[in-house]
Design a protein that fits this description.
The complex is a heterodimer of chains A (168) and B (101).
Chain A lengths: L2 H22 L3 H21 L3 H25 L20 H20 L14 H9 L3 H22 L4
Helix pairs in contact in A: 1-2, 2-3
Chain B lengths: L5 H21 L3 H22 L7 H31 L12
The chains are: A mainly alpha (168), B mainly alpha (101).
């Protein structure tokens, strides 16, 4: 077993384990922490798939942006427990049997489907950064979608601030 | 030294997708449901990246960058909506949103 596969297994274990703990826990803040670990593991997996640009962007966006947004959402929608006066972070959930069995059957079905396909294995490691190619591609071939994504982001952020302000 | 097989990435992404789906169905808190949606988006992203791993034209990588942007926009808007819903109903659990009319 090569070093690459061992690194992959460690990162996959981190990702899948923290995703499972996100499913298992009922505490909202613990779930946010588990999501942080999931995103960290996913960034590592992106690096192992030679997508280093995406890994850095993913870390910046998810750990720096989305997680902070989620924490602000948890803080702004807190519900104090009338008995103790403390914040109530435990969430309610429906019965566990049906959703977990649906998820498990989806996983097993996809697993079976992926195992059937003929995949090309044993390719040599290329291992070079794609930063230059991606930068060039985003400004030449994919310039229009790139600009569209920028305008979309602007619209979404303005819309979010408009929706979030109090309309009294 | 040989590369990591594509199918390992696909298995991990299938697992993430199934977990996200289970979170989506199981949890009643809206923020929890949004986290499940993020997991599903990232599973799709991992699939795209894994398929463009040995593709010299890198199309999957470009698509996954745009998926990232759309995911962030969705999260910002959705949390703003959750905030506004919380102001109106004083609750963020999905089965507590009932019309008063």
């Amino acid at each position: 077993m090569s070093t690459l596969v061992i690194a992959f297994l460690v990162l996959a274990l981190l990702t899948c384990g923290s995703a499972l703990s996100m499913l298992w826990t009922r505490n909202l803040l613990h779930a946010a922490l588990a999501m942080f670990l999931t995103m960290l593991g996913l960034a590592g997996l992106y690096v192992l798939a030679y997508a280093d640009v995406l890994a850095v962007a993913h870390l910046l966006v998810y750990v720096g942006g989305v997680l902070i947004l989620i924490l602000f959402g948890i803080m702004l929608t807190n519900q104090t427990d009338p008995a103790t006066g403390k914040n109530h972070l435990m969430t309610r959930e429906s019965s566990r049997l049906l959703p977990i069995s649906i998820g498990l059957s989806f996983f097993l079905g996809l697993f079976w489907l992926f195992t059937k396909g003929p995949w090309i294995n044993n390719l040599p490691v290329t291992g070079e950064s794609k930063l230059r190619e991606v930068g060039l591609g985003l400004l030449t071939e994919y310039a229009f979608p790139f600009e569209l994504a920028g305008v979309f982001l602007l619209i979404a952020l303005i819309g979010a601030t408009f929706v979030a302000k109090s309309h009294d | 030294m040989t590369d990591i097989p594509v199918i390992y990435f696909l298995w991990v992404s299938a697992f993430l997708f199934a977990t996200g789906l289970a979170i989506l169905l199981l949890k009643k808190n809206t923020i929890f449901v949004l986290m499940g949606i993020e997991l599903i988006l990232n599973a799709a992203n991992l699939n795209l990246v894994a398929f463009s791993k040995n593709d010299p034209s890198l199309q999957g990588l470009y698509l996954s960058i745009f998926v990232l942007v759309v995911g962030v926009c969705e999260m910002a808007i959705a949390l703003a909506i959750v905030l506004q819903v919380y102001r109106n109903y004083r609750a963020i659990e999905v089965d507590q949103f009932k019309s008063e009319y």
